[in-house]
Amino acid sequence: MPKTDRFRAAIDAAHGKFRKLAEGRNADFIPALAKMDPGLFGIALVTVDGKTEEKGDAGSRFTIQSISKVFTLACALQEVGDEAVLAKIGADATGQAFNSIMAIEQTKGKEMNPFVNPGAIATTSLIKGRTPAEKWKRILGMHEAFAGRKLEVDQEVYRSESATNGRNRAIAVLMHSYGRLYADPLVTTDLYTRQCAISVSASDLAVMSATLANGGKNPVTGKRVIDSKYVPRILAVMATAGLYDDSGLWLYRTGLPAKSGVGGGIIAVAPGRFGIAAFSPRVDAAGNSVRARKAIEYITAALSANPYNTKSL
Ligand code: GLU
């Protein structure tokens, strides 16, 4: 079968197989997320040569949530370099929940990674700019360069989370007290909350992950977004801590660097081959979209895309 037909067949099969699955429930710790239609289910795949395959609700908008951590990390790497990110944030799994305060206490804010909230908010604090508006321009600009189009913040989700994000503000202030947050904690938490509320579709996320699969050059726009030397760093953090407490399980099953968000999106990167994204709002106990996860696992197996499986080369 030609390559693109195989992609098409795998996506269609995954969508058909999991279409009726209704396990899990919408995240509700951000009140606006609970209101999303739980029946939505979309899948998109973009190859490193820019070919796109989509199925279901791939054009529906939802908030990027924690998947934004990947692109703000890209921005920080580009601005301060990989050694500074490693020294100031860290690159190890904490063994605790993504928003654990205990994890901060245990290490005095050290040995975090950019995908747990303390490390993610600290990563946002590394973004340069004289004013919050300047910093925001850089953060949003990086997301837009990855997506290849202008993006907007979902104001309802932003307001909803701003009104209920006391825990993230506490995390930021605590990190600051240990000297592990590098700008004003409340301004930084606001920027972080805004980045989580960026509105995207599965199609956008597939282009964004394909840009990582393609060494930092957007395969649709043809524009280089970040220096290729930083891509392996980002993929390493995705492999280590991309799916919350189920990151090990995910890597065991797929071998693919990935990142999920409580908005229901998951991205995964098959380096040198393609980026894939799936979206469905119902999440499991770990916070990962049930259908998105199963769909990507299925497609990875169908396309022999586990990079550790050298037999398939
Ligand atoms: N904005 C959410 C938070 O920081 C993101 C949660 C997530 O997607 O993991 O709590």
List the helices and strands and how they pair.
Elements: H1 3-18, E1 25-26, E2 42-47, E3 52-56, E4 62-63, H2 68-80, H3 82-88, H4 102-107, H5 117-125, H6 132-147, E5 152-153, H7 155-162, H8 166-177, H9 185-196, E6 198-200, H10 202-213, H11 231-241, H12 247-254, E7 258-260, E8 265-270, E9 274-279, E10 282-283, H13 290-302
Helix pairs in contact: 1-13, 2-3, 2-6, 5-8, 5-9, 6-9, 6-10, 8-9
Bound molecules: glutamic acid (GLU).
What does this structure look like?
With 313 residues, this protein is α+β, with helices and mostly antiparallel strands. The protein has 2 domains: 3-65 and 199-302, Beta-lactamase (3-Layer(aba) Sandwich); 67-196, Beta-lactamase. It is built from 13 helices and 10 strands. The protein has helices spanning 3-18, 68-80, 82-88, 102-107, 117-125, 132-147, 155-162, 166-177, 185-196, 202-213, 231-241, 247-254, 290-302; strands spanning 25-26, 42-47, 52-56, 62-63, 152-153, 198-200, 258-260, 265-270, 274-279, 282-283. The strands form 3 sheets. It has a 5-stranded antiparallel β-sheet. It has a 3-stranded antiparallel β-sheet with strand order 4-6-5. A two-stranded antiparallel ribbon has the order 1-10. A hairpin with a 3-residue loop joins strand 8 and strand 9. The longest helix is centred in the N-terminal third of the chain and has 16 residues, at 3-18. The model has no long low-confidence stretch (mean pLDDT 96). It binds glutamic acid. Glutamic acid (GLU) binds next to loops. Residues 65-66, 98-99, 117, 161, 168, 196, 261-262, 287 line the site of glutamic acid (GLU).
